[in-house]
Amino acid sequence: MKINIAIDGPSAAGKSTIAQNLCKRLGYVHLDTGAMYRCTALKALEKKIPLSDEEKVCEMLKDTEIVLTPDGRVILDGRDVTSEIRQDHVSMAASDVSKLQNVRKDLVKRQQEMAKARGFIMDGRDIGTVVLTDAEVKIYMTASAHARALRRLLQNQEAGIETGDLESIEKEIEARDYQDMHREFSPLVKAEDAVEIDTSDLTIEEVCDKIYHLAEPYLSMQEKES
Ligand code: DC
Questions:
Q1: How far is the CA of 35 from the centre of ligand 1 (A)?
Q2: pTM beyond 0.85, yes or no
Q3: Contacts (Cβ under 8 Å, ≥6 apart) of 29
Q4: Among 3.40.50.150, 3.40.50.1700, 3.65.10.10, 3.40.50.300, what is the CATH number of 5-203?
């Protein structure tokens, strides 16, 4: 049987990049749960629904299809929004809608359904604590705000996404971290059984090796079973 790996941590700590790399190595599928909050925010913004109106946002979600494809595309109601949801104003809006308890309930249910078959690396803020409490490997990934802002700037520039300068990105990241860590429902906290990895001075390969090493005992059990 395959396992599930949960990766939580603040924005731009490297969760998605590491998850994608590890998925290639393990033949697993990456589920970026942040993309689902981003889609919710984008649609609410487009429909001019106030981001604090829990009832209206939940009503909207009932009629919303979010598909995360195995090759990393994000499809919202049939439309490819992979780049659009990465814009800075959508990031903060995603953090705003993620405060709403019933929005979380809806998306968490979808995420648990998606990961049922196992063989997933899921990243977000509440994966180890709420969504996949039974994940065999749980990682809490961090990095300094400066290192994260620099990465986000380069990522945005490479992908041709409209972006602010380093200072404004660092401020946005700090504000979003504060909001994600201090909200009432499922705030970002390290799960008791998660292993913390600070990626500030590590290469992608070094981080992947660390997680692979943690998963190895389960993977060899998996080989023996098959
Ligand atoms: O991972 P990200 O930066 O794409 O996430 C966007 C926002 O969504 C983030 O600020 C908080 C929220 N989020 C959440 O509350 N729970 C998750 N599992 C994933 C994201």
A1: 7
A2: yes
A3: 23, 70, 119, 120, 121
A4: 3.40.50.300
176 lines ligand 1 (CB under 6 A): yes
Q: Is 148 in the pocket of ligand 1 (CB under 6 A)?
A: no
Each domain of the chain, given as residue ranges in start order, spans 5-203
The two beta strands, 79-80 and 74-76, are antiparallel
Sheet hosting strand 74-76, strand order edge to edge: 66-68, 74-76, 79-80
38 lines ligand 1 (CB under 6 A): yes
State whether residue 176 is helix, strand or coil.
Answer: helix
Residue to mutate (ligand 1; options 102, 180, 190; most atoms within 8 A of CB): 180
The H or E element containing residue 124 is strand 120-124
For the four alpha carbons of 202, 128, 24 and 30, in that order, the dihedral sign comes to negative
Band of pLDDT at residue 24, cut at 50, 70 and 90: very high
Q: What is the mean pLDDT of residues 129-144?
A: 97
Round to whole Å and give the CA distance between 191 and 221: 24
